[in-house]
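Human:
I keep going back and forth on a fold encoding question. Comparing notes only helps if you start from a blank page. Show me how you would write down a chain together with its backbone fold. Write it directly below this note and I will take it from there.

Assistant:
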Amino acid sequence: MAAETAGAPEAPRGDWPLWEVFVRARRGFAHAHAGSLHAADAATALRNARDLYTRRGEGVSVWVAPAGAITASSPDERDAFFDPAADKTYRHPSFFDLPEGVKHL
């Protein structure tokens, strides 16, 4: 028998969708992929992600996204996918004179 939450029947655990979790360690940093988890809905995924990936206070923000909503390039097609960027050498900083005192560019 399925458990009920807020009047709506909950799907069996095996049917829960996969969620990708992204955590931002500190303000000014980008969110980084922390891992994945299964949860019945977005609110539950967010709470579970907080409990699982930031239990030692290592995050200031958590994002969850349904894994099925993420579109990614294939590592097998790396050369063909990124090839158009290779012919745009003007995007590299080698064509610019850097002023003195500029570091880490």
